[in-house]
């Protein structure tokens, strides 16, 4: 009896897991997330809310209900392993925030209404390509941090040079280290740097073109490309890891199928043994 119960529970979990991990269910959840994200934007228009506010709130509540059922199914299938994935934890937190009441006696929690916009971030957890990019950015933070330190040193050196050379004639742009760094940041972004800053300075200091061009080459084209290279390298590594994980998961799935078949065989053997015992009992009575 215990064996049969255990078999039925595992059999049910296998079926639910296949359903949850199936393409049909995943695409359905993705569609709900997109619909919910669009509605969150539409609900910011007062005129639309005046006409169809209750209907939009109802649809949003249905979406939250679907998200909640999704989380419950995943908790049932994966158990404690559900919380070993950072993406699952992210989904759980967003859904939990969505369930916090914001009206009536719970008006003090109305600040959570602002956080409902975070539901749109669930697109990241559903789309693998976006997950790879976000994970690559997170993994690149240490190396990007060191590249940022290098960029800060370059800013500091050029700020000292700019303050020393141009402070007297252009105090608003190069009057202090802080003003120079802000001006150089504008130059680095290439926002109106030529006509807005460089040419007026060059008109009084003809040699200043070397200052601006060398800074742009070092900051915009070299250091920023280093940062891009770090992120791209991280994306390549994560993509390779995901490919290996998929292969491993496929092998695990095959093993799970084999275990399922073994359970079925054991169940059939147990039934055959019971039939044999019944036949032997009848034969002994006769």
Q: Can you tell me about this structure?
A:
There is one protein chain. The chain has 286 residues and is an all-alpha fold. The chain folds into two domains: 2-126, Four Helix Bundle (Hemerythrin (Met), subunit A) (Up-down Bundle); 128-286, Helix Hairpins (Orthogonal Bundle), CATH 1.10.287. Helix content is 84%, strand content 0%. Helix 1 runs antiparallel to helix 11 (208-285). The longest helix is centred in the C-terminal third of the chain and has 78 residues, at 208-285. The two termini are 29 Å apart. The mean pLDDT is 79.
**Average pLDDT reading:** 79
User: Based on DSSP secondary structure assignment, what is the total number of beta strands?
Assistant: 0
Number of domains: 2
Write the CATH architecture name of the largest domain. Orthogonal Bundle
Q: What do we call the CATH topology of the largest domain?
A: Helix Hairpins
What composes the largest sheet? none
What is the H-and-E element order? HHHHHHHHHHH
Q: Percent of residues in beta strands?
A: under 5%
Number of helices: 11
**Helix proportion range:** over 70%
Morphology call: elongated
Radius of gyration: 31 Å
CATH secondary-structure class of the largest domain = Mainly Alpha
Structural class: mainly alpha
Alpha carbon gap, first and last residue: 29 Å
Low-pLDDT ranges: none
Salient structural properties:
single chain, about 290 residues, mainly alpha, Four Helix Bundle (Hemerythrin (Met), subunit A), about 85% helix
